[in-house]
Amino acid sequence: MGLYPLLKAEFKLVYGELFRRKSAFIAMIIYPYLFAGFTLFFGYTIGSPNLFIERVGIDPVIFMITASYIVMSITAVIDDVLWRPLSDTYIGTIPYILASPVNRLKLFIAIPIPRLLAMVSMGFTSITPIYVLYYGFRGAVTALLIMALVALGALSMVSIAIIIAGLVHTINESWRILNIVRPLIMVLLGAYYPRIFMPFAAYAISFL
């Protein structure tokens, strides 16, 4: 089976679920604002936005809305690849997948694409309005560039996620390990914490 039929099946699965569950679709739209809002709220209670600008070099609102968008998009790829084998195991479909003539590599490449496209498109409702509000037309162009870079970055994570999934799912209670690996990946991506302030060892790993 080629890649196109697998992509077609995954698109039907993901988008059928999104349109059926309107709450999940709405949550995708508001999540970046919730993430950024809560983080900014706690940040403003203990510090000054001017200090953040002085240390990081960017407005905290721009930083957090961008970080939340990156987290949402990268997580879509990582979660789909890492958790799909567990999900198929629990619902009893893994024997049928293993017995099918489907190429495993093509399957894992196809799995995250539909949700990634949905998440990247959410940039039009998350970072684009904020960037336009702050920077005008230049902000719209910047938002489009960020969306393109996030898409490329998320696609580059597919191979890493496949390798991690292959290693993790050979171990018993792999879901426990995934709950540790996933936050570490997010931290090393610099989504929760500016990479320039990381210890040198962590910064070197994140740079790779």
Which short descriptors sum up this protein?
208 residues, mainly alpha, globular, transmembrane helix, membrane
Task: Compile the SSE list and pairings.
Blueprint: H1 3-20, H2 22-46, H3 49-56, H4 60-91, H5 94-99, H6 104-110, H7 113-121, H8 127-135, H9 137-168, H10 174-188, H11 200-207
Structural features, described:
The chain is mainly alpha-helical. It has one domain (3-163). It contains eleven helices and no strands. Helix 1 (3-20) packs parallel to helix 6 (104-110), helix 4 packs parallel to helix 9 and helix 8 (127-135) packs antiparallel against helix 9 (137-168). The two termini are 34 Å apart. The chain crosses the membrane at residues 24-44, 56-78, 116-137, 143-168, 180-205. This is ABC transporter permease. Keywords: Membrane, Transmembrane, Transmembrane helix.
